[in-house]
Amino acid sequence: MDKINIDDFIKILDEDVVKNNSCIEMNFYVEGDKDYTDCWLGKMFNKSSLI
Predict the structure, then answer these.
(1) Taking the alpha carbons of 34, 40, 18, 51 in that order, is the dihedral positive or negative?
(2) Is residue 1 part of a domain?
(3) What is the mean pLDDT of each run of 10 residues along the chain (51 residues)?
(4) What is the pLDDT of residues 4-15, one digit of tens each?
(5) Which pTM does this prediction carry?
(6) Residue 15 counted as domain residue
């Protein structure tokens, strides 16, 4: 996997998924941590909140 720094990670998660009509999905691991070797994170808008 490619590495990103924490600032870039925060920028990705700060994306306005409602305004941009998008979603974010990522699979990642935390280097050097045996408990977080296969993590998934997603961000999408709640359609019911747009009504």
Answers:
(1) negative
(2) no
(3) 86 88 89 92 80 57
(4) 888 998 998 898
(5) 0.60
(6) yes
